[in-house]
Amino acid sequence: MVTCTGCALLCDDIEVVVENNRIKETRNACRRGAARMKGCVNRLIPSIYQKPSDIDSSIKKAAEILKNAKSPMLFGWSNSTCEAQVKGIGLARKLNAIIDDTSSFCQGILIEKVLQKKFRTCSLEDVRNRADVLIYWGSDAQDSQPRHLSRFSYFPRGETRQRGYEEDRVAIAIDVRESNTAKICKGHFYRIPLKGDREFILALIDALSGKVPSYDTKKILELAGILKKAEFGAIFAGIGLTYSIKEDLVVLLTLVDLLPNFHIMPMVGHYNMRGFNENLFRETGFVNRVKFDGNVNHEDKYSILEVLKEKRTDALLVIGGDPLSSLPGTVVKHLSAIPVICIDPCATLTSKIAVVTIPCAVSGVESDGTAVRMDGETVKLSKVMENNYLSDEKILTRLMRAI
Amino acid sequence: MGMDLGKFLNSPEFEIRITTYRDIFQVEALERDRFGEEYKKLSATIMMSRNDLQKMGFKSGDRVRLTSNSGSVVVEAKENKRDEPGGIAFMVNSPWSNAIVSGETGGKGIPEFKNMTAKISLAKEEVTPLEKLMPGMRQA
Ligand code: SF4
C-alpha cells in the first residue's frame, strides 16, 4: 500500500503495478491520483539559459543567482514534502529572502484561522465515524478531492453511522454552480448568486437566532432546521466560499458559534499545502507571506502576487508550483524580467521561461517523506521505485551548502 | 461557400460574468501533459447556459473572444449539460481563464479568480495557443 499525492486527502490505500520504472497501473486511486502517480510525459531536464546542463552545474548556477540577488524569493512548496519545506524555510532565513506558497492565493487565510484555533475543526476519521450533516460549501469535492465522499464523508459506514448515506447522513451543497458534488446532494442543493455567500450566511444567522431571514425565507428556515438537529456537523469550506467571503471571514466564525455541534474543515487541493502552512507557522507564527531579515516580517506585500506586481524580487526560486500557469496573466509578466529557478519533476510553463531548471523526484513515488493531510494528520509517503532523481529535499540541502 | 465574414463584422458584444471551477478530467490531463491538446481542449472552453447562448446568438462549439480590462483570449463556447439559469458562465481554472483575471487585489494578494466580468463576441481566430499566454518564453 502506498500513499497518493494527487490531493490533500493523501489516500494511503493505493496499490501499484510497476513496469519499466513507471507505474503502469494503480488500484483504489481516483482518476486524479492515478494520473499523478503514473507521471507526466514531459520530465524536466537540467538546464541553464534553456540549454541542457547537468544537475551539478544547475545547482551551482542556482546558488550563484540566489547569493547575488538583493531580494530573492522562494515560492511554491505545496507539492513538496515537509522535510523539503523545513529546509526551504531554513534557506529563506539564510538568504534573508521572502517565502510564500500557493496558499497565499488559495486557502491560506482559512488555514491560518484553524492553526490559531479560531474555530472548531475535526479529523476526517471523526467525520467518517460521527458526522451526520455534511455541508460542501463552495467546494466540489467530487472533482477536487475525488475520494472525499467515498472514503470519509458521505458514503462510508462509520462507528455511529452504520447506515451510511442511505439513512444516517444528510449532504448539503451550497454553490453558485450545480457541481458534481451538488448533484449528489439531492434535494439539498442551495444555489447562490456569485459573491452571495455572505448574504446567505447572514440569513442563516438570522434564522438560527430566531429571526425571520430576509432572503429565501422558506429554504433558509428549512436548512437552519437541519443544522440545528445535527449531532455532528461538518462544513467543508472550499475556495469558492473562501474567495467569496475573504474580506469578512468573521461571518463564518459567527455562524459556527451558533452551531455548537459543527466543525469547519478547509478543503485543500495540493497535497502538502497545509504542511507548509503548519511548518512556517511553527517557526514564525505565520502561515505564508514572510520576509526574513534577521527578524520575521509578515505582510500582504510579501504575497507572491504583490511581489510580482510591484517587482519586489530580483530572483525567484519556484519549487513544485507553476505561477505562470496559476496567476493572472498581467501579473506574471515580471517573471520574464528576472532570473527564475525552477525545481519540479515535470516541465511547466514556468520552467519554459526559467534561467535554471533542476529536475526532482516525484514525491510519494520516487522519493519518500511526510506530508500533512487536509485535516492536519501527518502521513508518511513512500518511495515506490528506485530511480536516479534527487528528492526536492536533497536538492535544497545541496543548494544550501553551495550558498 | 466559405465563411460568412459578415457574421463576425456585425457580431455584437455582450457582457458576461464568469466564475471558475475545477474539473477532474482537466486535472488529469494537466498531470499527464500540460502542453498537450487534451489539456488545451478541456481548458480553453467557456460553459454557458442554453438561455445565454440563444440570447447572444451563439451555438455550442462556436469560438468566442473574451475581453476584460486585463486581457483577451479566444476559447470555445459550449452549452452546459445541466440546466443553469444563466447570467453566469463557467471556465475551468487554467492559463486561459487567468488571461482575463484582474491582478488588482487591493493589496491583499488574492485575485478574483471566481468573479470576473468580460465582453464576449464571436471570434474567427483559432483558440488562443498556450504559447501566446506565456510572456517572454525563452528559446533554447
Ligand atoms: S482522492 Fe486525492 S489522494 Fe485520494 S486517490 Fe484521489 S487524488 Fe489521490
Describe the protein.
- The complex is a heterodimer of chains A (403) and B (140).
- Chain A folds into 2 domains: 195 residues, Rossmann fold, CATH 3.40.50; 159 residues, 3-Layer(aba) Sandwich (Dimethylsulfoxide Reductase, domain 2), CATH 3.40.228.10.
- With 403 residues, chain A is α/β, with parallel strands linked by helices.
- Chain A has 17 helices and 18 strands.
- Chain B is of the alpha/beta class and 140 residues long.
- Chain B has a single domain, classed as Barwin-like endoglucanases, CATH 2.40.40.20.
- Chain B has a 6-stranded mixed sheet with strand order 2-4-3-6-1-5.
- The radius of gyration of chain B is 15 Å and the shape is globular.
- The model of chain B has no long low-confidence stretch (mean pLDDT 88).
- Chains A and B meet through helix 1, helix 6, helix 12, helix 15 and helix 16 of A and strand 1 and helix 2 of B.
- The site of iron/sulfur cluster has 13 residues of chain A, from helix 1.
How would you briefly describe this protein structure?
The complex is a heterodimer of chains A (403) and B (140). With 403 residues, chain A is α/β, with parallel strands linked by helices.
Helices and strands in order:
The complex is a heterodimer of chains A (403) and B (140).
Chain A lengths: L14 E5 L2 E6 L3 H8 L8 E2 L2 E2 L2 H14 L3 E5 L5 H14 L2 E4 L6 H8 L8 H7 L2 E5 L3 H4 L3 H6 L10 H4 L2 E6 L4 H5 L4 E3 L5 H12 L8 H13 L3 E5 L1 H6 L5 H8 L4 E5 L6 H12 L5 E3 L3 E3 L5 H6 L5 E5 L3 H4 L13 E5 L11 E4 L9 E4 L5 E4 L10 H11 L1
Parallel strand pairs in A: 5-6, 5-14, 7-8, 7-10, 8-9, 10-11, 14-15, 15-16
Antiparallel strand pairs in A: 1-2, 3-4, 3-16, 6-12, 12-13, 17-18
Helix pairs in contact in A: 2-17, 3-14, 3-17, 4-14, 10-11, 10-13
Chain B lengths: L4 H5 L4 E8 L2 H9 L4 H7 L1 E4 L1 H7 L6 E5 L4 E8 L8 E5 L2 H4 L17 E7 L18
Parallel strand pairs in B: 1-5, 2-4
Antiparallel strand pairs in B: 1-6, 3-4, 3-6
The structure holds iron/sulfur cluster.
Iron/sulfur cluster binds next to helix 1 of chain A.
